Structure formats: structure tokens, C-alpha cells
Amino acid sequence: MKKPEMRSCLEKIKPYVPGKPVEEVERELGLKNVIKMASNENPLGPSPLAIEAMKKHAEKMHIYPDGNCYYLKEALAQKLGLNNEQLIFGNGSDEILSFLTLVYVNEGEEAVTVAPSFSEYDFAMRLMAGIPRPVPLTGPDFGYDFEAILGAVNENTRLVFICSPNNPTGSTAGKKDLDSFIERLPDNVVVVLDQAYLEYVTDMDHPGGLDYVEQGKPVILLRTFSKIYGLAGLRIGYGIAAPEIIRELNRVREPFNVNAMAQSAALAALEDSGHLEKSRSLVSASRKQLAEGLAEMGLKPVPDQANFCFLDIKVDSRKAFQSLLKKGVIVRTGDIFGFPTYIRVTYGTQEQNSRFLKALEETLAELA
After folding, report:
1. Which residues is 157 bridged to in the sheet?
2. Cα 6 to Cα 298: distance, rounded to the nearest angstrom
3. How many CB atoms lie within 10 A of CB 57?
4. Shortest CA distance to 218 belongs to which of 73, 74, 100?
5. Is 69 helix (H, G, I), strand (E, B) or coil?
6. Is 55 part of any domain?
7. Which pLDDT score, from 0 to 100, does residue 263 have?
8. pLDDT tens digits, residue range 274-322?
9. How far is 330 from 328, CA to CA, in rounded Å?
10. Domain containing 41 — which CATH number?
11. What CA–CA distance (Å, rounded) separates 317 from 299?
12. Residue 110, helix vs strand vs coil
């Protein structure tokens, strides 16, 4: 077959390999009630208000969505004390990552990331023939070494990606350290502060980030409705930045990038503070439940501020994954992050957590 040659920079991108649907896993293995604790989803699901809003909006699906997310933008701006010009919405916050590299990264230019962290940073950079420069997180708690991150910044650096709480480790950046880091960065470098799990954070030292935007710093905050709001299937996230950054990102945003159902659900979800509190309480109780259960097995997860934990199980995570799968529990293996004996586990309901702990104990005994 004759065709144009693929851009050479794409050879460095490994296509995302999705897991099988839970229903297909159940069919193949002859199981029932398989639980998925791999994708950091909210086990409580969406707010009832969001579900009702989607039902009401269903009859309008023949109409294109509002390309400006007007009502959602108004509500979110009011909730956060922002101006509309400081917000941009995307088909998940992942899309906004692509906006950032489209706008700011030329071929051969660089972005500093940390490792391990969210793979989409690398993906977005590679799409533009950019070069990601990973800096390892440090110690058993996977802390941020901002001196090393700053040392990796050079004249070709355009972006710095900081995920806090970090995926997959759950570790966070301290406000004082991040403040100092941002103050010392060159003016032509944009800091992308990914806060997908912000609503779960209880550490008072964690940076909220809005003050950076208010001070006019070259910082964009990325947040999402996929995690605590339970709207992962609708794909809607947003960015907060100075108006000039938002205007530049809007140059590459397609006209109807956020679907109408997602907008209506997100708008309703913002009103349900009770659902957020239930979700936070569930994670807090789950973190304690798993920590206690794992301690009985001689295991200790990385301290986290997210809705998941990163855990060294001391055995091959791929083999453990297969064993857990046969017991009806799906987790994320650590080898994809470069840590072959780790697994990442989403906090579930009390029953789901108990099933995971029992299945893991049996798995470790099998693999011993």
C-alpha cells in the first residue's frame, strides 16, 4: 500500500493499550461482580443531581453543544472567585495538555517532568516532536526534588509538568518548595500544575495554586470532573490560568470540544457539595482500612493524598495482576511506570477493599 510516511517523532509514542471491559473479563473468566480498582474512578459514581441533569438534557442531543461552555464557565468562575477569561474547558484535562504543547512547543524543544508520573505529559510532547526530560522522584515516599527539577531547565525548556497529588505515587509538592521553584524559573517557561486529585487533599501544606494565577505567574492549573465528581465517562476537565494564556490556548481549541451532556452534568455536580463530602469520607476511611490490612501482610503503601495508593508488593506485579484478576479484582501494574514490583490500587468501598485485601493475601501466598 502506498501512503505518506508517518512523522518520525511518532515512532517514540507507544499506543495506549486499554484494559478489557469488566463485562468481557467476567465472560472470559466465568466470574461475577469483578471489581475494577485500576483507574482511580469514584466508586460512588456521579452525583444524583448530575444523573438527573443528564436525563433532562438527553432530548437535546440533536443540538450542538455550547462551544464556550457559557453556563458552566459562569458557575465555576463564581465558585472559584475567578473571571471567565481565566478558564478553559477540554475533553478531559488531557486535551488541554495537547493544547499546551500545540501552542508552546516547537520541534526539539523540551519539557521537564518527574518520574514516575502521568504518561500523557510524554505523549503530548512527543506529538509535537518535543523532548520530555524526566527527573526522578526521591526516596521511599517519592518526594519532589525541586533543585534537580530546576537544574533540568535550560534555554530549550518551554513547560514544566508538576502533578500534585502525583499519579501514580499519590505524593504531593509542598507549597513553600513550589513557591520558591516558580519564583526562580525563567519567565518564558510555563508551569503546568496538574491537580486532578486536588479535592482529596487534606494536607494543609499543599498548594491550592489559585494565588499563582492571581499573581500573574506563568502557571496553568489543570483540574477535572473525572475523579471526585465521578464523571470520567463524560470526559470533561478544565484549566485555570492568566487570560493571555487562555487566549493562546483557545487558538487551537476546536469549536465544540466539550459535549453537551458533559456540560450539563458538570454544572449540576458543582451544586452537590454533599456528594463531594461523601466521596472524601469514603477515601479517608478506605485509606485507613487498606493501610491496616496491608500492615498485617508486612506491606506499607506510599503515603498519599489521592484516591489511590502505590504499593510495593515485593513480587512481579504482572504475575500478581493475573492472579488478582482470576479472583475478580483488577489493579494497575507498576511495570508501566518503571516499578515492576509495585501496584496502584484505587480506594473502593469497604466491601471492595476487603475483597482486594483477601485476594492480595492469597496472591502473595501463591507467588511466594
Report:
1. 110
2. 49
3. 18
4. 100
5. coil
6. no
7. 98
8. 999 999 999 999 999 999 999 999 999 999 999 999 999 999 999 999 9
9. 7
10. 3.90.1150.10
11. 14
12. strand
